[in-house]
Amino acid sequence: MKTSDFYYNLPHELIAQTPLKQRDKSRMMVLDKNTGDIVDEKFENITEYINSGDTIVLNDTKVLPARLFGHRENKEEAIEVLLLKQREGNVWQTLVKPGKKLKIGTKIIFDEKLLSANVLDILDDGQRVIEFEYSGIFNEILDKLGTMPLPPYITEKLEDKDRYQTVYSKNLGSAAAPTAGLHFTNEILDKLAKKGVNIVYVTLHVGLGTFRPVKVDDVEKHEMHSEYFVIDEKACDIINETKRRGNKVYSVGTTSCRVLESATDDNGIIHPMAKETNIFIYPGYKFKMIDALLTNFHLPESTLIMLVSALATKEYILNAYNSAVEKKYRFFSFGDCMLIK
Protein backbone atom coordinates (compact mmCIF):
# COMPACT_ATOMS: atom_id res chain seq x y z
CA MET A 1 0.00 0.00 0.00
CA LYS A 2 1.56 3.28 -1.15
CA THR A 3 1.37 6.65 0.58
CA SER A 4 0.59 8.18 -2.81
CA ASP A 5 -2.61 6.10 -2.91
CA PHE A 6 -4.06 8.60 -0.42
CA TYR A 7 -3.39 11.73 -2.43
CA TYR A 8 -6.11 14.12 -3.59
CA ASN A 9 -5.84 17.56 -5.14
CA LEU A 10 -6.85 20.38 -2.78
CA PRO A 11 -6.95 24.01 -3.94
CA HIS A 12 -5.23 26.18 -1.33
CA GLU A 13 -8.21 28.53 -1.06
CA LEU A 14 -10.33 25.74 0.46
CA ILE A 15 -8.10 25.54 3.57
CA ALA A 16 -10.10 27.32 6.28
CA GLN A 17 -7.99 30.05 7.87
CA THR A 18 -10.46 31.23 10.50
CA PRO A 19 -13.32 29.63 12.43
CA LEU A 20 -16.93 30.43 11.54
CA LYS A 21 -18.68 32.97 13.76
CA GLN A 22 -20.92 30.21 15.11
CA ARG A 23 -19.43 26.81 15.84
CA ASP A 24 -22.42 24.71 14.77
CA LYS A 25 -22.99 26.43 11.41
CA SER A 26 -20.42 24.35 9.56
CA ARG A 27 -21.38 21.99 6.78
CA MET A 28 -21.41 18.24 7.36
CA MET A 29 -20.98 15.62 4.67
CA VAL A 30 -22.66 12.35 5.68
CA LEU A 31 -20.98 9.30 4.17
CA ASP A 32 -22.47 5.81 4.30
CA LYS A 33 -19.44 3.58 4.86
CA ASN A 34 -21.21 0.56 3.40
CA THR A 35 -22.49 2.05 0.14
CA GLY A 36 -20.41 5.20 -0.41
CA ASP A 37 -23.60 7.28 -0.65
CA ILE A 38 -23.17 10.97 0.23
CA VAL A 39 -25.62 13.45 1.75
CA ASP A 40 -24.75 17.14 2.15
CA GLU A 41 -25.96 18.34 5.53
CA LYS A 42 -25.48 20.97 8.21
CA PHE A 43 -23.69 20.08 11.42
CA GLU A 44 -26.50 21.54 13.54
CA ASN A 45 -28.67 18.63 12.30
CA ILE A 46 -26.34 15.99 13.74
CA THR A 47 -28.92 15.23 16.44
CA GLU A 48 -31.10 13.68 13.72
CA TYR A 49 -28.42 11.08 12.93
CA ILE A 50 -27.77 9.74 16.43
CA ASN A 51 -30.44 7.65 18.15
CA SER A 52 -31.55 7.34 21.76
CA GLY A 53 -29.38 4.73 23.46
CA ASP A 54 -26.37 5.46 21.24
CA THR A 55 -23.18 6.84 22.79
CA ILE A 56 -20.96 9.63 21.53
CA VAL A 57 -17.38 9.78 22.78
CA LEU A 58 -15.58 13.14 22.96
CA ASN A 59 -11.97 14.02 23.79
CA ASP A 60 -11.91 16.58 26.61
CA THR A 61 -8.24 17.51 26.28
CA LYS A 62 -7.38 21.21 26.48
CA VAL A 63 -4.80 22.87 24.24
CA LEU A 64 -1.82 24.52 25.89
CA PRO A 65 -1.00 28.04 24.66
CA ALA A 66 2.26 26.30 23.92
CA ARG A 67 4.07 28.71 21.57
CA LEU A 68 6.38 31.05 23.47
CA PHE A 69 8.62 33.83 22.17
CA GLY A 70 11.77 34.96 23.94
CA HIS A 71 15.46 35.62 23.46
CA ARG A 72 18.79 34.32 24.69
CA GLU A 73 20.12 36.00 27.79
CA ASN A 74 21.94 39.22 26.81
CA LYS A 75 20.98 38.73 23.15
CA GLU A 76 18.22 40.37 21.12
CA GLU A 77 17.31 37.93 18.34
CA ALA A 78 13.93 36.26 18.77
CA ILE A 79 13.69 32.62 19.85
CA GLU A 80 10.49 30.61 19.33
CA VAL A 81 9.83 27.69 21.67
CA LEU A 82 7.01 25.20 21.18
CA LEU A 83 6.12 22.99 24.15
CA LEU A 84 5.63 19.37 23.12
CA LYS A 85 5.61 17.24 26.23
CA GLN A 86 5.98 17.71 29.97
CA ARG A 87 8.59 15.27 31.25
CA GLU A 88 8.46 15.99 34.96
CA GLY A 89 7.91 19.08 37.06
CA ASN A 90 9.19 22.09 35.13
CA VAL A 91 11.10 20.04 32.54
CA TRP A 92 9.64 20.01 29.01
CA GLN A 93 10.49 18.57 25.62
CA THR A 94 10.32 21.36 23.03
CA LEU A 95 10.84 22.41 19.43
CA VAL A 96 12.93 25.56 19.08
CA LYS A 97 13.57 27.97 16.23
CA PRO A 98 16.30 28.86 15.34
CA GLY A 99 17.92 25.94 17.08
CA LYS A 100 21.63 26.15 16.25
CA LYS A 101 22.42 28.75 18.90
CA LEU A 102 20.50 27.06 21.71
CA LYS A 103 23.28 24.92 23.16
CA ILE A 104 23.15 23.06 26.46
CA GLY A 105 23.32 25.62 29.28
CA THR A 106 21.78 28.46 27.27
CA LYS A 107 19.30 30.61 29.20
CA ILE A 108 16.16 31.80 27.41
CA ILE A 109 14.28 34.85 28.68
CA PHE A 110 10.54 35.00 27.90
CA ASP A 111 9.70 37.72 30.41
CA GLU A 112 12.29 39.31 32.71
CA LYS A 113 10.02 39.08 35.74
CA LEU A 114 7.83 36.08 34.99
CA LEU A 115 9.47 33.34 32.96
CA SER A 116 12.83 31.99 31.81
CA ALA A 117 14.27 28.57 30.95
CA ASN A 118 17.57 26.72 30.71
CA VAL A 119 18.48 24.22 27.98
CA LEU A 120 19.27 20.86 29.65
CA ASP A 121 19.71 18.55 26.68
CA ILE A 122 19.61 18.29 22.88
CA LEU A 123 17.87 15.21 21.47
CA ASP A 124 18.84 13.34 18.30
CA ASP A 125 16.09 15.02 16.26
CA GLY A 126 17.10 18.51 17.41
CA GLN A 127 14.41 18.89 20.04
CA ARG A 128 15.52 20.66 23.23
CA VAL A 129 14.81 19.58 26.78
CA ILE A 130 14.40 22.73 28.85
CA GLU A 131 13.66 23.54 32.48
CA PHE A 132 11.50 26.54 33.30
CA GLU A 133 12.05 29.03 36.09
CA TYR A 134 9.14 31.28 36.99
CA SER A 135 7.43 33.34 39.64
CA GLY A 136 3.76 32.49 40.21
CA ILE A 137 1.54 29.77 38.73
CA PHE A 138 2.95 28.26 35.53
CA ASN A 139 -0.35 27.73 33.71
CA GLU A 140 -1.43 31.32 34.41
CA ILE A 141 1.91 32.62 33.10
CA LEU A 142 1.60 30.39 30.03
CA ASP A 143 -1.90 31.73 29.40
CA LYS A 144 -0.54 35.28 29.58
CA LEU A 145 2.62 34.87 27.50
CA GLY A 146 1.85 31.92 25.22
CA THR A 147 -0.07 31.75 21.95
CA MET A 148 -2.02 28.86 20.45
CA PRO A 149 0.11 26.41 18.42
CA LEU A 150 -1.94 26.58 15.24
CA PRO A 151 -1.12 24.11 12.46
CA PRO A 152 1.36 25.33 9.81
CA TYR A 153 -1.34 25.58 7.12
CA ILE A 154 -3.15 28.30 9.14
CA THR A 155 -1.39 31.60 8.53
CA GLU A 156 -3.97 34.08 9.80
CA LYS A 157 -3.92 35.27 13.41
CA LEU A 158 -6.51 33.71 15.74
CA GLU A 159 -8.43 36.56 17.39
CA ASP A 160 -10.04 34.47 20.14
CA LYS A 161 -7.95 31.73 21.82
CA ASP A 162 -11.10 29.91 22.91
CA ARG A 163 -12.03 29.12 19.31
CA TYR A 164 -9.16 26.61 19.20
CA GLN A 165 -10.66 24.87 22.23
CA THR A 166 -13.77 22.70 22.38
CA VAL A 167 -16.56 23.98 24.64
CA TYR A 168 -15.99 20.90 26.84
CA SER A 169 -12.17 21.13 27.03
CA LYS A 170 -11.00 20.31 30.53
CA ASN A 171 -7.66 18.52 30.88
CA LEU A 172 -4.71 20.69 29.86
CA GLY A 173 -2.01 18.96 27.84
CA SER A 174 -2.47 19.09 24.04
CA ALA A 175 -0.26 20.71 21.42
CA ALA A 176 -3.19 20.73 18.97
CA ALA A 177 -6.98 20.73 19.23
CA PRO A 178 -9.18 17.67 18.67
CA THR A 179 -10.79 19.59 15.82
CA ALA A 180 -13.87 17.45 15.16
CA GLY A 181 -15.11 18.65 18.54
CA LEU A 182 -14.85 22.33 17.63
CA HIS A 183 -18.29 22.18 15.95
CA PHE A 184 -20.15 21.31 19.15
CA THR A 185 -22.00 23.85 21.26
CA ASN A 186 -23.49 23.32 24.70
CA GLU A 187 -26.91 23.56 23.05
CA ILE A 188 -26.14 20.67 20.67
CA LEU A 189 -24.87 18.57 23.57
CA ASP A 190 -28.02 19.36 25.56
CA LYS A 191 -30.20 18.31 22.60
CA LEU A 192 -28.37 15.00 22.34
CA ALA A 193 -28.69 14.35 26.06
CA LYS A 194 -32.42 15.14 26.04
CA LYS A 195 -32.83 12.71 23.15
CA GLY A 196 -31.37 9.95 25.31
CA VAL A 197 -27.90 9.86 23.76
CA ASN A 198 -25.10 8.99 26.20
CA ILE A 199 -22.25 11.52 26.22
CA VAL A 200 -18.91 10.11 27.34
CA TYR A 201 -15.56 11.85 27.72
CA VAL A 202 -12.06 10.45 27.29
CA THR A 203 -8.74 12.29 27.28
CA LEU A 204 -6.02 12.04 24.66
CA HIS A 205 -3.35 14.72 24.61
CA VAL A 206 -2.74 15.50 20.94
CA GLY A 207 0.90 15.81 19.94
CA LEU A 208 2.36 17.61 16.95
CA GLY A 209 3.07 14.18 15.47
CA THR A 210 -0.49 14.36 14.20
CA PHE A 211 0.78 16.86 11.57
CA ARG A 212 3.97 14.94 10.78
CA PRO A 213 4.00 13.95 7.10
CA VAL A 214 4.39 10.33 6.08
CA LYS A 215 7.88 10.25 4.56
CA VAL A 216 8.00 6.63 3.42
CA ASP A 217 6.50 5.22 0.22
CA ASP A 218 5.29 2.05 1.92
CA VAL A 219 2.52 2.93 4.40
CA GLU A 220 3.32 -0.03 6.66
CA LYS A 221 6.86 1.24 7.25
CA HIS A 222 5.67 4.54 8.76
CA GLU A 223 6.61 4.93 12.42
CA MET A 224 3.56 6.27 14.26
CA HIS A 225 3.91 8.87 17.02
CA SER A 226 2.65 8.02 20.51
CA GLU A 227 0.13 10.00 22.56
CA TYR A 228 -1.00 9.71 26.18
CA PHE A 229 -4.65 8.84 26.87
CA VAL A 230 -6.97 8.15 29.78
CA ILE A 231 -10.35 6.38 29.84
CA ASP A 232 -12.04 5.70 33.18
CA GLU A 233 -14.25 2.89 34.44
CA LYS A 234 -17.49 4.87 34.21
CA ALA A 235 -16.91 5.64 30.53
CA CYS A 236 -16.08 1.99 29.83
CA ASP A 237 -19.23 0.77 31.58
CA ILE A 238 -21.44 3.07 29.49
CA ILE A 239 -19.73 2.11 26.24
CA ASN A 240 -19.82 -1.63 26.96
CA GLU A 241 -23.49 -1.44 27.90
CA THR A 242 -24.21 0.46 24.66
CA LYS A 243 -22.70 -2.37 22.63
CA ARG A 244 -24.51 -5.04 24.66
CA ARG A 245 -27.84 -3.37 23.82
CA GLY A 246 -27.00 -3.32 20.13
CA ASN A 247 -26.72 0.49 19.99
CA LYS A 248 -23.94 2.38 18.23
CA VAL A 249 -20.78 4.07 19.46
CA TYR A 250 -19.96 7.35 17.71
CA SER A 251 -16.40 8.59 17.97
CA VAL A 252 -16.00 12.36 17.78
CA GLY A 253 -12.65 12.75 16.08
CA THR A 254 -9.72 10.50 15.24
CA THR A 255 -8.24 11.13 18.70
CA SER A 256 -11.27 9.61 20.45
CA CYS A 257 -11.12 6.79 17.91
CA ARG A 258 -7.49 6.08 18.84
CA VAL A 259 -8.48 5.84 22.51
CA LEU A 260 -11.44 3.54 21.86
CA GLU A 261 -9.55 1.19 19.59
CA SER A 262 -6.48 1.13 21.88
CA ALA A 263 -8.48 0.31 25.02
CA THR A 264 -10.73 -2.38 23.47
CA ASP A 265 -9.70 -6.02 23.60
CA ASP A 266 -10.14 -8.61 20.85
CA ASN A 267 -13.53 -9.59 22.30
CA GLY A 268 -14.90 -6.08 21.82
CA ILE A 269 -14.79 -5.14 25.52
CA ILE A 270 -13.28 -1.77 26.47
CA HIS A 271 -11.24 -1.44 29.67
CA PRO A 272 -10.20 1.57 31.80
CA MET A 273 -6.56 2.52 31.34
CA ALA A 274 -4.07 5.39 31.27
CA LYS A 275 -1.12 4.85 28.93
CA GLU A 276 0.58 5.84 25.69
CA THR A 277 -0.75 4.61 22.37
CA ASN A 278 0.99 4.52 19.01
CA ILE A 279 -1.84 2.70 17.26
CA PHE A 280 -1.67 3.15 13.47
CA ILE A 281 -4.98 2.59 11.73
CA TYR A 282 -4.96 2.18 7.95
CA PRO A 283 -6.93 0.07 5.42
CA GLY A 284 -7.01 -3.55 6.47
CA TYR A 285 -7.54 -2.66 10.13
CA LYS A 286 -10.58 -4.34 11.74
CA PHE A 287 -12.37 -1.92 14.06
CA LYS A 288 -13.12 -3.38 17.49
CA MET A 289 -15.31 -0.64 18.95
CA ILE A 290 -16.45 2.33 16.90
CA ASP A 291 -19.47 2.16 14.61
CA ALA A 292 -19.35 5.72 13.28
CA LEU A 293 -16.96 8.65 13.21
CA LEU A 294 -17.38 12.42 13.08
CA THR A 295 -14.20 13.96 11.71
CA ASN A 296 -12.89 16.96 9.81
CA PHE A 297 -11.34 16.71 6.34
CA HIS A 298 -7.67 15.68 6.51
CA LEU A 299 -4.46 16.42 4.65
CA PRO A 300 -3.59 14.38 1.55
CA GLU A 301 -1.30 11.40 2.26
CA SER A 302 -1.66 11.84 6.04
CA THR A 303 -2.11 9.13 8.68
CA LEU A 304 -5.54 10.60 9.40
CA ILE A 305 -6.88 10.15 5.87
CA MET A 306 -5.53 6.60 6.10
CA LEU A 307 -7.54 6.08 9.32
CA VAL A 308 -10.82 7.22 7.80
CA SER A 309 -10.09 5.12 4.72
CA ALA A 310 -9.87 2.08 6.99
CA LEU A 311 -13.42 2.77 8.14
CA ALA A 312 -15.08 3.57 4.82
CA THR A 313 -12.64 2.22 2.17
CA LYS A 314 -10.12 4.33 0.32
CA GLU A 315 -12.33 4.52 -2.77
CA TYR A 316 -15.35 5.89 -0.88
CA ILE A 317 -13.22 8.39 1.06
CA LEU A 318 -11.40 9.77 -1.98
CA ASN A 319 -14.68 10.02 -3.88
CA ALA A 320 -16.17 11.93 -0.93
CA TYR A 321 -13.14 14.23 -0.69
CA ASN A 322 -13.24 15.01 -4.41
CA SER A 323 -16.94 15.77 -4.03
CA ALA A 324 -16.15 18.08 -1.10
CA VAL A 325 -13.59 19.91 -3.24
CA GLU A 326 -16.12 20.35 -6.05
CA LYS A 327 -18.73 21.66 -3.59
CA LYS A 328 -16.17 23.96 -1.94
CA TYR A 329 -16.31 22.54 1.55
CA ARG A 330 -13.89 24.16 3.99
CA PHE A 331 -10.93 21.90 4.88
CA PHE A 332 -8.79 21.04 7.91
CA SER A 333 -8.84 22.36 11.50
CA PHE A 334 -11.31 25.25 11.16
CA GLY A 335 -13.18 23.63 8.28
CA ASP A 336 -16.32 21.58 7.79
CA CYS A 337 -16.83 17.99 8.93
CA MET A 338 -17.77 14.52 7.75
CA LEU A 339 -19.96 11.97 9.52
CA ILE A 340 -18.97 8.45 8.48
CA LYS A 341 -21.76 6.07 9.54
Structure write-up:
This protein is α/β, with parallel strands linked by helices and 341 residues long. It has 2 domains: 242 residues, 3-Layer(aba) Sandwich (QueA-like), CATH 3.40.1780; 79 residues, Thrombin, subunit H. β1 and β2 form a beta hairpin. The protein has 6 helices and 17 strands. It is globular, with a radius of gyration of 21 Å. The mean pLDDT is 95. The longest helix is centred in the last third of the chain and has 13 residues. It starts with 26 loop residues before the first strand and ends with a strand.
Question: Quick gist of this model?
Answer:
The protein has two domains: 3-63 and 160-340, QueA-like (3-Layer(aba) Sandwich), CATH 3.40.1780.10; 67-145, QueA-like (Thrombin, subunit H, Beta Barrel), CATH 2.40.10.
For the terminal residues, how far apart are their CA atoms?
25 Å
* Rg result: 21 Å
The CATH architecture of the largest domain comes to 3-Layer(aba) Sandwich
The count of domains is 2
Helix content: 10-25%
Count of strand segments: 17
Shape, per Cα inertia axes:
globular
Structural class label: alpha/beta
Q: What is the name of the CATH topology of the largest domain?
A: QueA-like
Query: Helix count, per DSSP?
Result: 6
CATH homologous superfamily grouping of the largest domain: QueA-like
Low-confidence stretches: none
Adjacency order of strands in the biggest sheet: 2-1-17-16-14-3-12-13-15
Under CATH at level 1, the class of the largest domain stands as Alpha Beta
Strand content: 25-35%
- The ordered H/E elements are EEEEEEEEEEHEHEEHEHEEHHE
The average pLDDT is 95
Q: Biggest sheet, in brief?
A: 9 strands, mixed
